[in-house]
Amino acid sequence: xxxxxxxxxxxxxxxxxxxxxxxxxxxxxxxxxxxxxxxxxxxxxxxxxxxxxxxxxxxxxxxxxxxxxxxxxxxxxxxxxxxxxxxxxxxxxxxxxxxxxxxxxxxxxxxxxxxxxxxxxxxxxxxxxxxxxxxxxxxxxxxxxxxxxxxxxxxxxxxxxxxxxxxxxxxxxxxxxxxxxxxxxxxxxxxxxxxxxxxxxxxxxxxxxxxxxxxxxxxxxxxxxxxxxxxxxxxxxxxxxxxxxxxxxxxxxxxxxxxxxxxxx
Length: 265
Fold this sequence. Notes:
43% of the residues lie in helices and 14% in strands. By secondary structure, the protein is of the alpha/beta class. It has one domain: Undecaprenyl pyrophosphate synthetase, CATH 3.40.1180. Strands 3-4-2-1-5-6 form a six-stranded parallel β-sheet, with helices on both faces. The longest helix is centred in the middle third of the chain and has 24 residues, at 83-106. The radius of gyration is 20 Å and the shape is globular. 31% of the residues are buried.
């Protein structure tokens, strides 16, 4: 089975190109267990179906012009789940690497891991590192896999690295912290999507997501396909990102940039 599997007919309908797709989209893939429960299936079936859906979304992200995608695969808090489910999630990740790595590489996807590998079984940790190294030169889409990741934990590690670097307290700025995060060489996410109707970040990219647009949907992750992803990107494109400024300031900046580029306002 390959990454670019055939999708349902409605999922392959031609969609108009996006004028300004977000450069970086982060996704909290929530609702696998509830999707399974609605169908009288074990939670494992929901996780497996969620993995199948990831194929569609990776494909769609490249199609729609997204350059970076960060997915929340396993949080530091997920260790508190039943041991059987944790083992299943680990097996699923290992299976995905074994089954999809070659196809991801052919499609130009660069895999990156954000999080900690301490405490992960040595065989799986080795496969994660090898997958990142194998795809490191690809440029079509950067796929950050947040695995054994927590936003607060990331900030703690960043501060520890700042201290190790011997940087004086008065020289520490927001840029200093950002430079020591897992995503130090990447722009912050423009859009964070959460499926299943929840309204929280759950310790996901809490530094990087300070000014991200948030999009939530009641749809469970296994059903969040290409068309739903497109709708989220359209919604993002209709929003006005102020970054603390007023509408008048934004209008003035747009008019000034339009004059520079020779556009009619």
